[in-house]
Structures are given as C-alpha cells and as structure tokens.
Design a protein that fits this description.
This protein is of the alpha+beta class. The chain has one domain. Helix content is 20%, strand content 25%. The protein contains three helices and six strands; from the N terminus they run αββββαββα. The chain is extended, with a radius of gyration of 19 Å.
Length: 133
C-alpha cells in the first residue's frame, strides 16, 4: 500500500535485488541454552551498557531475545544481528567485554580503561564470535 502511494505520488520505482550481506547470527550452543530466565515479577525490561571494573558491562534485564538482538544491531555492531535461537520468554543477560573501534560505529562509549593490575575483560573479537546461549 505504501509502495503504491510512493509510486503514484512521487513517481518512485522499486526493484528487488538479492545480495549476500555479512551478519551476526545468535544461536544456541550445542550444550543448550545457559541463559538465566527473567523473573515474571522481577526487574522491569531494560537493556543497556555501563562501565565495569574490567571494561564494559552489557546487560539485558527480563528481556526477550529479539529485543536484545535488536539492541545489538542498532547500537553495538555495524551489521545485522539475526536471532536463530528459537528461545521464547524473557532472560537476564550480562556480558563483560573490552570495547574497541570495531564496536559502536567507532565512537567511544565513555568506558574507562581497566585500572593497573586488573585483567581486562575479553575483547570485542571474542564478543562477536562467541555463542552466548
């Protein structure tokens, strides 16, 4: 309906094109999901990032997996994130990592470097290749 409106009003033309794109795929590991289920009467749904002593802490409280993958795609990574977990329900997720220039569109997120003598969290290369479920 919108396509027809745009074509009629603005003389726009559309075509379909198939291309291969690079994407991240979130899947369940071979040993099954190890995510902590959110509590039905627990925290309100929320997803974010905050500073941690060893780097950055990404969290999802009482969150459905599609909301978490949407957050990853729009804020963290530079390409699509596809949910192939098949998981329903809401989960509590925490991931501690050391951000680098490959994340957040190359913009710093205001996370201080770990203090001297503190082992930094895994880097983003591990974050993007890990299976969290």
């Amino acid at each position: 309906m919108i396509r027809k409106l745009l074509a009629d009003r603005f003389q726009l033309k559309f075509h379909h094109d198939k291309r291969e794109l690079s994407a991240f795929v979130l899947t369940v590991g071979k040993d099954g999901a190890k995510l902590k289920p959110g509590q039905p009467n627990g925290n309100l749904h929320g997803i974010g990032i905050q500073a941690a002593p060893t780097g950055a802490l990404m969290f999802a409280n009482n969150s459905p997996i599609p909301a978490f993958t949407s957050f990853l795609q729009s804020i963290v990574f530079d390409r699509p994130v596809v949910d192939q977990t098949g998981l329903t329900g809401k989960y509590d997720i925490t991931v501690t990592f050391t951000p680098d220039d490959s994340l957040f569109n190359g913009q710093p997120i205001g996370v201080p470097k770990p203090a001297d003598g503190v082992e930094p969290a895994p880097g983003s290369s591990r974050l993007s290749s890990s299976s969290w479920g």
